[in-house]
Write a structure and sequence with these properties.
Largest sheet: none
Structural class: mainly alpha
Number of strands: 0
Order of helices and strands: HHHHHHHHHHHHHH
Shape: globular
Strand content: under 5%
Length: 282
């Protein structure tokens, strides 16, 4: 049923694995390496047609220039204004809904749970027109608040699925014994369940932060002005502004990719713990 571990495989399989793994890693990282090398090239190299070779010298000034000569700093700030409230809102709502769906066996429990999950299977392209029209009628088009509200609404379904399954894996005796002692439902959630959910909250926060930070589709559908444009859509605007300055665009891309990478490494331990806890019980 499960694949045989590499350690138990034949010597030929192990030898092929040790060869294929670094090759696959290099192929996977090749585009990122290419962008990183391009970000360190001077403008003269690209003007001379040196697109794939090594730079004639390391031009670290590209990273300063992309902030000095473009609104990249504003785009990154806009991404934080969208991403952080979305993570807080979606995770907070999913903790409450996940607790309700995991602990209370009311009649329409499965129907409500299905409604939360079903939204994740709707293609973004189908929602594009109605969501845009809704934000226009509510006066939230081309605003950070409109983008935050949409992301919170859409991400809460996935977060609820994650939290509900995690809470289901907790020992039910903890909640039952607290009820016997007369503890209120809110205190059970706040003092018993929520502390045990910290690994799941950390893992979910990393996932949602990465999803929202890297979002490009809704950033271009719901936002137009640079006052609210996230960094993913802002990088495309830089491409139009500097049609030949690929070194500056590449430097901006590297800078834009740093926040989710740093967040993952800072919370790596909690991220792995949150994904593994509760994996054996649905």
């Amino acid at each position: 049923m499960f694949p045989t571990p590499v350690e138990r495989s034949s010597p030929l399989v192990r030898y092929g694995y040790h060869i294929a793994l670094p090759v696959a890693l290099v192929l996977w990282l090749l585009p990122l390496i290419g962008v990183a090398v391009t970000s360190l090239k001077p403008t003269g190299d690209l003007a001379a047609g040196n697109y794939f070779g090594l730079p004639s010298y390391i031009a670290f000034e590209n990273y300063a220039g992309v902030f000095r000569n473009s609104p990249l700093g504003q785009y990154i700030l806009n991404s934080f204004k969208v991403t952080i409230p979305t993570v807080i809102g979606a995770v907070a709502l999913s903790c409450l809904t996940g607790f309700a769906l995991a602990v209370y066996n009311f009649r329409s429990n499965l129907i409500v749970f299905f409604m939360f999950v079903a939204g994740n299977f709707v293609p973004f392209q189908i929602l594009m027109v109605p969501v845009r029209e809704l934000t226009l009628r509510l006066g939230m088009y081309d605003t950070t608040a409109g983008l935050v509200c949409f992301h919170v609404a859409f991400q809460t379904g996935f977060c609820t699925l994650f939290m509900r399954n995690f809470i289901k894996a907790l020992p039910p005796e903890l909640i039952e014994s607290a009820r016997v002692e007369g503890v209120s439902e809110f205190r059970i959630f706040w003092y018993i369940v929520l502390p045990l959910m910290r690994p799941a909250i950390a893992a979910l926060s990393v996932l949602i932060f990465t999803f929202i930070w890297n979002d490009y589709f809704w950033a271009t559908v719901l936002v137009q002005g640079s006052h609210a444009l996230p960094v993913t859509a802002g990088l495309y605007a830089l491409n139009g502004q500097w049609i030949a300055a690929w070194n500056l665009v590449s430097a901006g891309s590297i800078v834009a990719a740093l926040p989710p990478v740093l967040m993952f490494f800072l919370m790596q331990h909690h991220f792995i713990a949150g994904l593994t806890l509760g994996a054996t019980k649905g």
